[in-house]
């Protein structure tokens, strides 16, 4: 699966995880919706949860922008929009918080759900906190990756949401 990022460029480029992936030739960055390939779009506002059933869509696309500007309207990209199920961030800015993942965490989570754990480890290895993301989320990611579809993913997510209440 090809990794793509619609790059908005309104965050500090020195801290941007997508820019770092580009430097290591691990993802392609695109400056407009038109240039961005059609695929599964990682969108926290999407109605449908990502599941292994989305694995054959070809391209995996994240939108790298600041969380301040990441409102629903920002996700105007054509594609199959999917929200990631309950996971917690390991990056230093949002450590331990659910759902607000960096671009690299979001892409890595999708790869694990699609059964590409080694590749997820590869992209996270470029960040000194990267392995912590897979450790913190080991159980939910394994269970999501064993689901057939979005309905099953949402069922499992419910358990984690109830525990967190
Ligand atoms: C808002 S940007 C912030 C990027 C940050 N500046 C960085 O350097 O990584 C993070 C992107 O990762 C994806 N993402 C993060 N959390 C997500 C979630 N819970 N569901 C779906 N996609 C998510 C989305 O594409 C989102 O736009």
From TrEMBL:
Signal peptide: none
Keyword field: Cytoplasm, Ribosome biogenesis, rRNA processing, S-adenosyl-L-methionine, Transferase
Catalytic activity of the protein: an N(1)-methylpseudouridine in rRNA + S-adenosyl-L-methionine = N(1)-methyl-N(3)-[(3S)-3-amino-3-carboxypropyl]pseudouridine in rRNA + S-methyl-5'-thioadenosine + H(+)
GO cellular component terms given for this protein: cytoplasm
Domain 16S/18S rRNA aminocarboxypropyltransferase Tsr3 C-terminal: 40-161
Binding site for S-adenosyl-L-methionine: 17, 63, 84, 103
Pfam families according to UniProt: Fer4_RLI, Ribo_biogen_C
Enzyme Commission number: 2.5.1.157
Subcellular localization(s) per the UniProt record: Cytoplasm
PANTHER family xref list: 18S RRNA AMINOCARBOXYPROPYLTRANSFERASE, RIBOSOME BIOGENESIS PROTEIN TSR3 HOMOLOG
Function: Aminocarboxypropyltransferase that catalyzes the aminocarboxypropyl transfer on pseudouridine corresponding to position 914 in M.jannaschii 16S rRNA. It constitutes the last step in biosynthesis of the hypermodified N1-methyl-N3-(3-amino-3-carboxypropyl) pseudouridine (m1acp3-Psi).
Name by which UniProt lists this protein: 16S rRNA aminocarboxypropyltransferase
